[in-house]
Structure to design on (591 residues):
């Protein structure tokens, strides 16, 4: 039996159905991402698990027990909010200790666990600062520490990295992945960033307009998208003869689909081409290996092998 | 040109000094002049008025009452105003707008009219407030409200409540709504969330509201004059009487200046305390 089960979960806001028949089973220790554009129902789903939003229909079970009967304060979940939602009037250590205090953990034990968790997220030296005195990335780590220190049954992450700049986001992705592996907490991530979802998750749930489009491992969803929406949302794609072909799978060859290079853009580690063909515009991505590449206006032939 | 900003603000500065600084300086100077029943005001420099204000226990009692009333009003305004602001902040439109108007509405009505309203409600032993309290079984006999500190505190607290509500509301609006959810998710009950999360963050607003309410309550004139009358004087009505009834302007000026200095010191002191306490936290 799965650890966390969402069964035929619905949520209506007035006449608008925000989440429509969501069914999902998450195993213990698994990292699952809810991925989709804004308004797809992913955040509403997270809030139903957290207990801030009541489902219109369906069931949520944690370890075989009905979670909907449990008050939000008693669910024992760790949540990292998009805005971090740190307590601005408390120090970092007080922020992290708050959940333990609420559980009535003894002082000595509490201090020890706070110190351990701050060490885990690399903020051991910042215990006495206030949130305002920290950078965005550091605040994010405090929020993570505050959620992890209570040893939650599930860790819920609501767009946790979206307020960070691109470089820091990548670093935090790697770190988040390592921390989750270390503590082994079952984790649900909500994000609109497909790269983030693919980098972090064991499985991704692609959602659109309240419905699930596909549930699969990142590699599988990318290579074998169940719907055109999934194919488009997970990356650039070409629709040729009714088949999805990823731009990086297409090579310039001696023979194949004939075309003319419309535009060529250099992006450092790769070249991005748009090639005019009888099937319309085809996007091609080629690694920058230092070799000479076709220029704009050149006649080329495109070849690819069918998806495995 | 470097002097342009100064030149541009010169008209406003002139107006400000003409209507605020000059009369204030004149009042301060007036408090050092001599006065006699038959000789009137003599423009000399004496400390007579100040000595009288500081040594006569009558004035001590007046100022004591003024600040006692101001403290009670401030506490009452905070006790009712802060929850009011919290509830207001959680309301959805259109209710929020409607109730904001209800709370701020009294500001649109003259203080005199509002206080006369309280006088009607308090009036005599058969006043509406007493009747209501008796029929609710809260009191057995009528309470004296007119010409008492209780009546003054109740009326002033009502009159000044909007300032407290606005100050707290401004502080609450900066509060991240997710912060309360975060505390709940960590296992905090409703009451703990209010006490440990919301109240500390509303505190700067409560304190700045308290400074405003305290200053306005201590210097209020119309409400004490109507509810307290001649029988129960406070610093401002005392100064008024010295000016217009006794005609002892220098003594009235001394009382007025003392009230002003005391209020400025209290307000500035509280402000510094607030800033030192919260600067690093709320930046």
């Amino acid at each position: 039996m799965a650890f966390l089960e969402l069964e035929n979960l619905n949520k209506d806001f007035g006449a608008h159905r925000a989440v429509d028949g969501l069914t999902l089973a998450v195993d213990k220790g698994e990292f699952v991402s809810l991925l989709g554009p804004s308004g797809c129902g992913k955040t509403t789903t997270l809030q139903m698990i957290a207990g801030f939003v009541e489902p219109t229909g369906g069931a949520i079970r944690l370890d075989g027990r009905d979670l909907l009967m449990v008050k939000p304060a008693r669910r024992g979940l760790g949540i990292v909010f998009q805005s971090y939602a740190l307590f601005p009037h408390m120090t970092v250590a007080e922020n992290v200790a708050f959940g333990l205090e609420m559980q009535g953990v003894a002082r000595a034990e509490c201090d020890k666990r706070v110190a351990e968790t701050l060490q885990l997220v690399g903020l051991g030296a910042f215990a006495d600062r206030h949130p305002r005195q920290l950078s965005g990335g550091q605040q994010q780590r405090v929020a993570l520490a505050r959620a992890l220190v209570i040893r939650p049954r599930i860790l819920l992450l609501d767009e946790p990295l979206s307020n960070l700049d691109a470089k820091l986001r990548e670093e935090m992705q790697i770190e988040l992945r390592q921390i989750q592996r270390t503590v082994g907490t079952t984790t649900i991530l909500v994000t609109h960033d497909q790269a983030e979802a693919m980098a972090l998750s064991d499985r991704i749930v692609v959602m659109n307009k309240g419905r699930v489009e596909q549930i699969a491992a990142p590699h599988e969803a990318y290579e074998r998208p169940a719907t055109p929406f999934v194919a488009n949302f997970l990356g650039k794609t070409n629709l040729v003869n009714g088949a999805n072909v990823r731009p990086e799978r297409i090579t310039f060859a001696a023979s194949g689909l004939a075309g003319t290079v419309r535009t060529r853009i250099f992006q450092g580690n790769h070249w991005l081409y748009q090639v005019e063909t009888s099937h319309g515009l085809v996007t091609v991505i080629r690694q920058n290996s230092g070799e000479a590449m076709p220029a704009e206006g050149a006649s080329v032939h495109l070849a690819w092998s069918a998806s495995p | 040109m470097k002097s342009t900003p100064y030149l541009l603000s010169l008209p406003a500065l002139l107006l400000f000094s003409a209507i605020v600084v000059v009369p204030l300086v004149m009042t301060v100077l007036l408090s050092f002049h001599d006065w006699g029943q038959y000789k009137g005001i003599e423009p000399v420099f004496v400390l007579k008025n100040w000595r009288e204000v500081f040594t006569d226990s009558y004035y001590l009692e007046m100022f004591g009452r003024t600040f006692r009333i101001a403290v009670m009003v401030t506490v009452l305004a905070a006790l009712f105003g802060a929850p009011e602001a919290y509830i207001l902040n959680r309301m959805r439109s259109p209710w929020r707008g409607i109730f904001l108007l209800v709370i701020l509405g009294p500001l649109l009505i003259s203080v005199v009219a509002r206080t006369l309203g309280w006088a009607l409600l308090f009036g005599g032993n058969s006043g509406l407030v007493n009747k209501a309290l008796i029929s609710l079984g809260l009191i057995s006999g009528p309470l004296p409200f007119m010409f008492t500190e209780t009546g003054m505190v109740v009326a002033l607290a009502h009159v000044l409540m909007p300032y407290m509500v606005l100050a707290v509301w401004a502080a609450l609006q900066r509060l991240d709504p997710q912060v309360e959810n975060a505390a709940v998710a960590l296992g905090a009950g409703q009451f703990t969330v209010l006490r440990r999360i919301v109240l500390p963050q509303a505190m700067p607003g409560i304190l700045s509201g308290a400074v405003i309410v305290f200053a306005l309550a201590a210097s209020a004139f119309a409400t004490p004059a109507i509810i307290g009358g001649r029988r129960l004087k406070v610093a401002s009505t005392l100064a008024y009487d010295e000016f217009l009834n006794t005609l002892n302007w220098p003594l009235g000026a001394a009382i007025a200046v003392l009230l002003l200095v005391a209020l400025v010191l209290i307000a500035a002191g509280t402000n510094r305390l607030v800033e030192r306490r919260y600067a690093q936290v709320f930046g």
Observations:
- The longest helix of chain A spans residues 166-183.
- Chain A has two domains: 4-229, 237-303.
- Residues 78 and 148 of chain A are 6 Å apart (CA to CA).
- The interface with chain B takes residues 50-52, 72-79, 81-83, 85-89, 98-99, 102-103, 130, 132-133, 146, 150 of chain A (CB under 8 Å).
